[in-house]
Every structure is written in C-alpha cells, then in structure tokens.
Amino acid sequence: MSVMERRLIRDNSFDITSKLFRISWLYVLLLSALAGVGYVALYSAAGGAPEPYAARHIFRFAVGLVLMLSIAMIDIRFIQKMSWLAWLGGVVLLVLVLKMGNVGKGAQRWIELGGMQWQPSELMKLCLVLGLASWFHRASWEKMGNPLFLIPPLIAVAIPVGLILKQPNLGTAVITAVVGGTVFLGAGLRWWKVVLAVGGVVAAAPIAYSHLRDYQRARIDTFLNPESDPLGAGYNIIQSKIALGSGGIWGKGYLQGTQGHLNFLPEKQTDFIFTMLAEEFGLVGSLAVLGLLACIILGGMLIALRCRHQYGRLVALGISMNFFMYVFVNIAMVMGAIPVGGVPLPLVSHGGSAMIMVMIGMGVLMSVHVHRDVEFDERQRDL
Amino acid sequence: MKREAQRSGVFTRRALIIAGAQVAAIGGLAARLYQVQVEEGARYTTMAESNRISARLIAPPRGRLLDRGGAILAGNRLNWRALLVAEQTGDVAATLENFGRIVPLSETERARIERELRRHRRFVPIMVREFLTWEDMARIEVNAPELPGILVDVGTTREYPHGPAMAHVIGYVAPPAEADVAEDPLLSLPGIRVGRAGMERVHDTVLRGRAGAVQLEVNAVGRVIRELDRREGTQGQDVNLTIDLDLQKSVLERLGDESASAVVMDARNGEVLAMATNPSFDPSLFNSGVSQAQWVAWTSNRRAPLINKAVAGLYAPGSTFKMIVALAGFEARVITVGETVYCPGYLDFGDRRFHCWRKYGHGSVDMRAAIKVSCDCYFYEVAKRVGIDRIAAMSHRFGLGTKLDIELPGARAGHVPTRAWRIGQGKAWNIGDTIVHGIGQGFFQLTPLSLATMTARLATGRQVEPHLTRAIGGTMQRGFRPEDWPALGVAERGLQVMRDAMWAVVNEQGGTALIARLPAAPGSTAPPAQMAGKTGSVQVRNVTREQRERGFKSENLPWEYRPHALFVGYAPHDAPRYALAVVVEHGNAGSEAAAPMARDIMAATMARDPVIRSERPRVAEGGPPR
C-alpha cells in the first residue's frame, strides 16, 4: 500500500497551501450535499418557503463550513496536547448546565449562548473522544491487556455519562457510552471484555428501567406498543410511520406530503425531517439520503484507516461513530424501531447549535485527514 | 515501529468490523424502509388519506307538501340556532352557564345537551337552542366573548302555515329516534326532522332527499384546509296532495264545534279533495317538543283531537248502508226493482218486533221508494231474504270493511260482520242479527272515508280508491285519470235505481233529506246542480220498549248517548263528479245534523268546481329555502 510507504512528515512547518491541498474536498462535497438535502427538506417543512428554516440552515452551514476548514488547519498534535483540557472543559460545562442550565422538557440540557441553545453533552462526546484517543495514543497491545491501564479511561467515560444521565438525557448518555466504547474497541480492548461489558449492560437494563423518569418509561412503553394510546404518547410514532408508508416507492411529490403539510407529523423540521423527505420522495428518495449518510460515515472510517498515527485513527473512529449514532438513532426512531429520543438528523434537521457541533467534529476529522502523515514527538515514548 | 505496526493492524481489523456493523445497521434501516414504504405502503396510504380527509354531510332542504294547486301546506322557514363546539370552549359547563343567563335553558334541555356532548366527538357542533328570536341572537352576539365555542347558524325548520286545518292529513315532523339515525347518516345532523305522522311520514324519504357530502382536507387539529370534493345531495321533492286547501278550510269551518269529520272525493278518480276532522291540533307543536300538559289535554279530550276520524273513526253506517243491501238483494234476485214490501211500521220475526223509524209505517214501498223514504221494514225484509254474507260481499266491493289504498298511517280497514266472523267469536248468528244489519246497525265498523268511497263507486260504477298523493316532484301519480280505475262489475240497472232513489231523497217531495237540496249558485241564473244522497243515524245505545212508549226523544239524552248523524252524497246527480261523506258524532238525526252540513259542503265544492277542474301550476313558485 502506497499510503504506508509514504514518508512521515516530521516537519512542523508544512504550510497552509499544502494543508488545503490535503483536505478531502470530496468529503466536503458530500457534507455540502447533505446540507443541501437539509435545505430542500426544510424548505418543504416551512410549507414551501425559505423562511424560517431553510435559509438560516444554509447560512449556518456556511458558518460551520468555515469553522470546519479552520479547525482542519490546526495541527492534530496540538489538538492531542489539548485533549485532556478539552475533556475537562466538557465536564465543567456539564456541571454548569446541571447547576444553572435551562430546563426543557423536564431536563436540564441547555445553555443559552450567543442567541443559541447549546447542549454541552454534544460537545462532551467530541471531547471524550479526544481524551480517550489521547490516553490510548501510545498504548501497545500488551498495555491494553492491563486492567489497571483501563481504569482511568473508564472513569473518563463514567463521569460525563453519569452527568448526562443526571440531566436526565438517556439517549445522549447511551450514545456517549457507545462512542466511548468504540474508541476502547479501536484501541485494542480484548473481545472478552467487550462481551462482558455488553452482557453487563443488558443484565442491568431492568434495574436501570426502574430508575427512569416517567417520560422516559413512557417512551419505552410507547415504543413497545405504539397503538396502545394512539392520541397520546404513541401519536408521534404512528403518524411518522403513516407518513413514511404513504410515501410509497416514488413519494407524493415535493411539497405534496399530506402528513407533513397538514401537521399530522410532529416536529417535522427537527427530529422527523427524514420522515418528511421519505413521504415526499418515497423509498427512492429515502434510500438516496441513506446512501449519502452511509458515504459520509464510511468516508470517516476511511480517514481513520488512512491515518498513520493511533491518535488520529481513534479520533476519526470516534467522530464517525458519533455521526453514525446520530443517523441510526434518528432514522430508527422515526420508523418506530427504537424509542423516540430527540436526536436530530445531522446537517439536515433544523437547529443551529447541533449543526455547529457536527461541523466542529467534522473539522477535527478533517484535521486528522490533513495531518494523517505527521509524526508525533519522539520524546513521547510508546507505552 | 513494530508496536505501531501491531497497533495499526489491530485497529484496521477492528475498524473494518465496526464499519461492517455500521453498514449492516444501515442496511437494516434500508430493509425496514422497504418494508414500511413498499410492502405496507398501501395500508399506510389509506391511513394517511383518512387522516387528511374528513367527510361531512350536507342536509338538503326537506321537500314541501303542497295542495293540488300548489299552495304550501308544509314548508320550510329559516331557523336560527345556537350551536356549541366543545373543543373550542375551555370550560363547557361555564359556557353553558353563561349562555343560560342570556337565553334560559330548562333542565331537560341541559340534560339533552349533556347527552349529546357525550355522544359526539369534541369538534362536532351540538345544538344548544333552536328557534332563536332576533333579540336572543343579538344578546348572544353581544356576549360572544363570554361564550367561546358558541356559534349561531341558520338552518331550516318545518312550518305549517295552515296549522290545525291540515294537521290530520299532513301529520308532523319530530327529531329522529336513535334507531332512525342508524338507518340514514343524514339524520345525525343537528336539527334534522323526520316525518312522524300523516303525509309527512308517508313521503318521508321522498321529502327528505339524500344527503350530499363534502370531502374536506383537514389538518391535525381538524381545521379545514380546503374542500376536495362536493357531491350535492338530492334535494327533497315537493309533493302535491289531492287536497284543495280552500275547500278543506271551508269544510272544516262548516263542521263548526261538532266532533265530526267529512271527506270530499273526486268520484271519478278517488282524489280526496278535503278530509276534515274536528277538533284538530297544531302540528308545529311537535317540531319543538310537546309539553306534558298539552299531551294530557289532547289525550284526555273525549273528542280525540289527535285522531283523524275520517280514516280512523269507526261507525255503523245506519241508513246510508241501505243501498248496499238493496243491491245485494237485486243481484241475488231475491227482490226485483218493482216488487213492493208492505210496511206497517214494524216487522215481527220470531218473538222479536223490529221497528221502522216511522211509527205508523210507510205502506207499500218499492225499491226506489224504500231508499227515498228510508223505510226500515223494506230492508229488514230484503236482508232477511239475501242473508248477511251476500250483504258483506257486496259491501266489500264498495270499499266497506276492506283495506283502502289511502296512504295515511293509522287508517283503519273497518269491519262488516259475516256469519263466519260471528261464529269465529263463539257466538251464533241469527236471522234477527241479519235483519238489524239490513238497516246498517249492529256490528259494523266503518270509516267516513270508506262511506265516501262507497258513494263514489255508486255514482260512477268504477272501483275508485281514495288517495291523497297527486304528484311527486311535478310528476302526476297513477290514478288521476278515471280510466285508471276498473269497472265495479255491479249491474248498471241496479246502480241506476240507486242513483235515481238517492236523487229523490234530496230533490223529490217526501225524500228524507230535502234540506240537503243544493241552492242556486250566487249570481247565477243557470239551474243549480242537484245532489243525490242518503241520510243515516246510528244509535249508540239500544232504545228500550218502555222508552219508546214514553215518547222517547234522543235529543234529550246526554251528548255521549245521542245517535251519530251521517250523510253520504254526490253531485251533480246527472254527471257525478264529487262524492262526500259527513259523520257528526252524537249529532242525533242524519237529516238534522249531517244533511245541512253536507249541503253546504257540496255547495262549496261546486263553487270550487271550475278551480278544481282547471289545469293550474302544480308547484308553488320559488324553490324551498336553501
């Protein structure tokens, strides 16, 4: 493989131009395409108008794109040095949101900043990936077999997950744990430990259920039997499935979706945006969007595979996994395959802070790609 | 570097496994999408359609009932209603409380509103109060802020411009029962009415029409976005009755205060021109609900205002039956037209003596004279010879004691006794019974309508059936042409004798109803048309020998024991056109109470004759309100 044969870049001073040259513009194009899908969908969600969703969406994406490309210029080795600081910052924000955050839908999740509502838990996922990748950066296969070595990163996962659960936000906590676990796996966690952890979670689920808030339990109950209360908690799922199913193969036509435009579909500009697309463009349209999302996820995985240092690999893996979890949970949710969880479809759903968070993550991912061949400081010994 | 290579190798394997898992998961989503959008697509499409489309019924205006000339007998009038939409009001109880302060609501109204609120979905308008006055509406509009969810709309309600005059024929409408609603969804609309009696009931489906429907696109909260489709319903059709309103009114007026009924028919085709029953009631009271007190007043009145005596009142025919007995005897050849019977004032049979109404008898009478002077002895003799069963058979041919084709619900067939019927009751039939029935007394139960029918058949020799429907939606119904009716099949010779005798009753010296002779039409020099007819009076209680010897006078009896007075007749005698029957309950003698009434009614009919004959517009101008 020619990639592996390429000479490592030891020089810290490779310039902006060559960095821009190393950006995967194809990947940027894929992201822009997805944001374009978002524009089309939000235009329809507003009843065929750019306001109030679609125009802002594309503006935010432009801002996000600049942010992403800027971050992509930052040396990955600098990011690595800042990793634990980032983790600490994330945890501090989570504590802050518990102390003084805004209560929305019975949970403390939001911080008001710059006219937008920020969910620190979204930032935390990225910071956790950075922190864990930094910890496992130099870890050898043998080191990964040492349980004592695994305790600090486990704590690094447990603290934010615990804080997010306390908000409470079960969906994000689960996603955070899964993303963290994926980094462990990429770093070389033994399979039997993986099996043990998954088994433990499954065994603990009934106990966890008894500690859930009522609305969380209602979601799970509704998921198990949505028709039990068609006008109550199950309404969203049923209407979403009706919208999906009535789209058929070719869809009802752009701006012709009855479920969406007659407001049977709840929160169609945010959580249920995919349903709206599927209703108007049918199976063909929904599979096309799904394909685009798969390309972005696998593109991230490809960046991880092409990276020549462990830190970049693990960061790219974690970010891709995070993106995948967004996509999977959102689409499975609108199809009634998993409990409804308030997870948006990245770059498509309306929402400024989520878009910025995703683009920051994509910036770090792109930084990994730009700096895929750099050599880390030799003074850092392999562990 | 070796460690880096090992790390890289482990990572690559793991990353590929993870990527594979991701692809599998996305593939799972794609498969599920295929399942939902393609395999179950049809089902969800239906659900989406039923989500978005809400069908609502539109009530067509109820057809009107018109008289033969197009005068409105039952029409529609605008009805302002207050409706309540539960989902648009925060607190239903408070809103109703506020409403009650503006327009007082009774306990029963409140109970009905509560019941309807429970029965219907929250966005279905519930009728709170109908027949609002202008003041009520103004007050509701002024207080609109305190009455969220209350809206005023306009519907139509049934109006009976001639009230009691037409009540028994027209009947009335009332709110539908729950069982009716299951039959026709149209009836679930607020304020709808169904025919409950009379012609309103007979032609209910024709008058009601068929509900139209609009398909509306609604959004998730039920708000109407746009109209997708509209199917106009079939409007209820107007029905022309055979009744002549002016004649009906003058007939009813002539009945005065008596508990009486009169039927005027077109003798040629059976069209009922007037069917009056006294006393009557106001049918519009049923529209809004009849009070308990009113109901008790109606049902406890011994003159029975709710009963249409013309078709449901049952009487013995008395002497008006004598033509049937004579025809039965003539057809059975037990007596000829010229054969005379001697009347000494009584007929002895066995140990019983049957009295003629004229104490000292009529002497020798033939058939014509017997009818003219209404000699009882003659008919005792004929009845004795011919027997009850042949009398009953002949009466059936004349529409007596058989079911007539009249449309009215509650019309009675009546009854003419036969030997088999009496034996079926476990009693014997004696010749003495036959003799009594020969003068129309006894077990008869006949309606005024059937007596009018008998008279029409006598006059025309056709088997006309009485009917009330002339045209539906402007289309003439079968039976308005005389040729529609078959010949009766009774020997013309016998009928001619009867007609001649009945003419003599009214127009020849010595007849029993000279008082019924028609006067000259006012302002006309032409000789007046002449009526042929027959009187009758029916004892409702036996007169004992002792009473008879003491010089019994029936007018001295209490009202309910006095005899009924009857008269049947037709005119003009030489070209029969109109037949009538008048029954005055407890009116004493037919010649005294019924005959003058019949004279005036027939005179009024003849005065209307040019109008009745003329071809006039059959439908009133202007459609019903939409």
Determine the N-to-C terminus distance of chain B.
94 Å
Largest sheet of chain B: 7 strands, mixed
Q: Provide a count of the helices of chain A.
A: 16
Silhouette of chain B: elongated
Question: What is the terminal separation of chain A in angstroms?
Answer: 27 Å
> What are the low-pLDDT stretches of chain A, counting only 5+ consecutive residues below 50?
1-5
3D shape of chain A: globular
Q: State the helical fraction of chain B.
A: 25-40%
User: Which class do the helix and strand fractions of chain A yield?
Assistant: mainly alpha
Approximate helicity band of chain A:
55-70%
How does this structure look, described?
The complex is a heterodimer of chains A (about 375) and B (about 625). Chain A contains 16 helices and 3 strands. Chain A is mostly helical. Chain A starts with a helix and ends in a 13-residue tail after the last helix. Mean pLDDT of chain A is about 85; it is low at about 1-5. Chain B has about 625 residues and is α+β, with helices and mostly antiparallel strands. Chain B is built from 23 helices and 21 strands. In chain B, helix 14 (about 320-330) crosses helix 16 (about 375-385), helix 14 packs across helix 17 (about 390-395) and helix 15 (about 365-375) packs parallel to helix 21. The longest helix of chain B is centred in the first third of the chain and has 38 residues, at about 1-40. Chain B is elongated.
Briefly say what this structure is:
Chain A has 383 residues and is mainly α. Chain A has helices at 2-5, 16-22, 25-45, 54-73, 76-100, 120-136, 141-144, 147-166, 170-187, 191-210, 214-224, 235-247, 258-261, 273-306, 310-334, 352-370, and strands spanning 102-104, 107-113, 116-118.
Helices and strands, with pairings:
The complex is a heterodimer of chains A (383) and B (626).
Chain A: H1 2-5, H2 16-22, H3 25-45, H4 54-73, H5 76-100, E1 102-104, E2 107-113, E3 116-118, H6 120-136, H7 141-144, H8 147-166, H9 170-187, H10 191-210, H11 214-224, H12 235-247, H13 258-261, H14 273-306, H15 310-334, H16 352-370
Helix pairs in contact in A: 3-4, 3-14, 4-16, 5-6, 5-8, 6-8, 6-9, 6-15, 8-9, 9-15, 12-14, 14-15, 14-16, 15-16
Chain B: H1 2-39, H2 41-52, E1 53-58, E2 65-66, E3 72-85, H3 92-102, H4 107-119, E4 125-129, H5 134-142, E5 150-159, H6 167-170, E6 172-174, H7 178-183, E7 194-197, H8 198-202, H9 204-208, E8 212-218, E9 224-231, E10 239-241, H10 245-255, E11 260-266, E12 272-278, H11 284-288, H12 292-300, H13 309-312, H14 322-331, E13 341-343, E14 346-349, E15 352-355, E16 363-365, H15 367-373, H16 376-386, H17 388-397, H18 419-424, H19 431-437, H20 448-460, E17 469-472, E18 475-476, H21 492-507, E19 532-538, H22 545-549, E20 564-571, E21 578-584, H23 590-613
Parallel strand pairs in B: 2-10
Antiparallel strand pairs in B: 1-8, 2-3, 3-4, 3-5, 6-7, 8-9, 10-17, 11-12, 11-21, 13-16, 14-15, 17-18, 19-20, 20-21
